[in-house]
Amino acid sequence: MENQNQSKKGSSGGGGSGSAWSVFQIDELMQRLQNDEEIIRIIIAQFMLDTPTQIRELQQAVTSGQTDQVRHISHTIKGAAATVSAEELRALSSTIEQSAKSGTLELVQGELQELSAAFIRYADEVSLSGWYRESPE
After folding, report:
1. Which of the residues 85, 86, 98, 106 has an alpha carbon 20 to 30 A from that of 26?
2. pTM: predicted TM-score of the whole model, two decimal places
3. Dihedral pair phi/psi, residue 23, rounded to 5°
4. Looking at the domain 22-128, which fold is it?
5. 15 Cβ partners below 8 Å, 6+ apart?
């Protein structure tokens, strides 16, 4: 369980983006979910399954100018990211949501690209830390 014990110390950074956001705040997640490792793994696994599809749907909604859909999907990603202590993803989703609320979708292309990259950083971090493993198919 060495990998797991190391992961409990927390993990931060931003990969190659130079971001100041924490990629995966395991200490905060452990505290919020009362150190229930089983529930944490379940929640992270579901996030890892749902989020790539949501990001694709968000990209399609932005491309087609569906402001309400962009607001809804980005809000959903924001909440899920907060649940799994993915602060970088939460913050980017919040920015996209605010742009949709103000009707300025043309300004979110950079955030959308960064959102995809932030998800990859999160996926790498939770995998390396031992909190998530893809099930073999």
Report:
1. 98
2. 0.81
3. -75, -45
4. Four Helix Bundle (Hemerythrin (Met), subunit A) (1.20.120)
5. 23, 117, 120, 121, 124
